[in-house]
Write a structure and sequence with these properties.
Oligomer: single chain
CATH class of the largest domain: Alpha Beta
CATH topology of the largest domain: Rossmann fold
Order of helices and strands: EHEEHEHEHEHEHEHEHEHEHEHEHHH
Strand order of the largest sheet: 3-2-1-4-5-6-7
Helix content: 40-55%
Number of strands: 13
Number of domains: 2
Number of helices: 14
Amino acid sequence: MTRRWIILTGEYPPSVGGVGHYCSILAGALAARGDDVTIYAPPGSSDSAASGAAVKLLPDHFGPRSLLYLSRTLRSQHSTCPVLVQYVPHNFGWKLMNVLFCLWLWLWRHADKRIWIMFHEVSFPFVRGQSWRRHFLALVQHVMAFCCLRAASRIFVSCAAFKSYIEKTLACRKEISVLPVFSNIPDTVDDAAVKSLRHSILPQDEWQLIGHFGKFQKTVSRTPALPYKKLLERHLQLCFLLIGENAELEAGRAKRENPETASRILALSNASAAEAATALASCDLVIQPYQGGANSRHSSLLASLALGKPIVTNLGPLSEPFWASSSAVALASSSSEEDIYRSAEALLSSRDQRRELSAKAIGLYRDVFHLDRTLEVLYQKAEEDDIT
């Protein structure tokens, strides 16, 4: 059965690891199954096809001209195809506060259109002590989320903690489905490329490589501190490899703070998806700490999981129970540098434990996070809604 899908996204590739990249992979997978997929993205995005999906660029960043254009487009559609919104509040322009777009979605709630919203993030939080500007941003984004929830006929979230937050804070009584995020980079790599990369960056074969994958902010990093100093001073045959957008900025900061071991802190910035996968696969151990804890919305964590890497991460308020019950990752009790160091130190000295974690990591990814799991949920909901 061929279905038609309309996808709205506030960003689109080439950025690796972001929501735009996620959208491209999902659209390509739907198209590969014979579905008709059209992506609508803001100007300045890549307009290249996503493996069979059509990409149409809007006249502005989901402003009045775009909403008028989309209204005409939706009215011309006679089918009840899902309009799948990849929602991240700060991705739709208007200084992170595009209330007009959310109100526009709400206006479609009585039309014969299926508005499906995937919440990759819900809203900026209210935090005690933050500036009034941030409180205002949090208030506006909560209003935006409220409008989107009332507009949606189907609601998806990237982690269970968001489901609980929406139900309690935004008083939503609709069904909410958790749609875990899949890895945005390949889960298979060329062994020869991995060996070549290790040979190029490690002085000798017996040296070990610790990796970290993510988006590094140009201003202040939201990533908890990595235990460079203790690990590099304790292990003289060890290097750190930072992978992802602006990785050289984080490497520069780490080198300034650790001048004695600066030569063993490396960076791979602006890598393609294939290059990032090869770099991660080259690592003996991957460290991925998060302020909110390991959870199913972190594609940087899932990338290492999909490749079967032994991972050190941490528990937190957003962590789902399966991270502990699966024993697929080494879990520190917090994201503090000391807790992460102790977990990493234990793994570096045990090849058998790393091998065991690798096997369980692949199993957890295939059972919970693989792209096929995402498609299963979407097609199940489409059948329930009798969408053809």
